């Protein structure tokens, strides 16, 4: 497999965690979203992913984009360890939390949107994350065990950790979200989350390396 990734992309990080958890080795091709006006806008990359976003994964003779679609494919082709619970209710909760972050928070504060916000980008990002986290904290109080849904790592957790990193980058006060904070801390102790971390990628700038 070949993963097209950017060290700081939260969507790319979700996929890196999934690949690490499932023990799938891959080659990484960095796509710098800032340099040269954004390498994702090159004709070469547009041919690979018409949405001009990372991640993209070449695997088993196909090219996939969209992090949750990629993770679902990995789940179906490499079922262990499981990232979606067998119980239909818990599975629905995992998907709900993953969608809450992947559709309801992250796109509102990603690079493309922030470019449009000009000087207000910090305030905009903080507001988007805060309103999303207020709801998420409430949801997790009903679903969480050690992790987002019960005591097994799931697709929801793969979305949570990168989003908390975004919140910290945008200086969001995390004190109103004790459940999110506790789960995030527990997940960051796991090896798959450590090795996939933005501070440990081939394209991480020297000053941001772990």
Automatic annotation (TrEMBL):
Keywords of the record: Cytoplasm, Isomerase, Phenylalanine catabolism, Transferase, Tyrosine catabolism
PROSITE patterns hit by this protein? GST_CTER, GST_NTER
* Database matches in InterPro entries: Glutathione-S-Trfase_C-like (IPR010987), Glutathione-S-Trfase_C_sf (IPR036282), Glutathione_S-Trfase (IPR040079), Glutathione_S-Trfase_N (IPR004045), GST_C (IPR004046), GST_Zeta (IPR005955), GST_Zeta_C (IPR034330), GST_Zeta_N (IPR034333)
The GO cellular component terms are: mitochondrion
Look up the domain of life of the source: Eukaryota
Predominant localisation class? cytoplasm
- List the cofactors: glutathione
Which GO terms of the molecular function aspect are on file? glutathione transferase activity; maleylacetoacetate isomerase activity
EC numbers, comma separated: 2.5.1.18, 5.2.1.2
Looking at the record, the residues that make up the GST N-terminal domain are: 1-82
Q: Which reaction does it catalyse?
A: RX + glutathione = an S-substituted glutathione + a halide anion + H(+); 4-maleylacetoacetate = 4-fumarylacetoacetate
Please state the pathway this protein functions in, per its UniProt record. Amino-acid degradation; L-phenylalanine degradation; acetoacetate and fumarate from L-phenylalanine: step 5/6
Q: Which SUPFAM superfamilies is this protein grouped with? A: GST C-terminal domain-like (SSF47616), Thioredoxin-like (SSF52833)
Q: Where is it located?
A: Cytoplasm
Residues in GST C-terminal domain copies: 87-206
Q: Which GO terms describe its biological process?
A: glutathione metabolic process; L-phenylalanine catabolic process; L-tyrosine catabolic process
- Pfam families for the chain: GST_C_3 (PF14497), GST_N_2 (PF13409)
User: Which family does this protein fall into?
Assistant: Belongs to the GST superfamily. Zeta family.
Per its record, how is this protein called by name?
Answer: Maleylacetoacetate isomerase
Give the organism the record lists.
Cettia cetti
Provide the gene name from the record: Gstz1
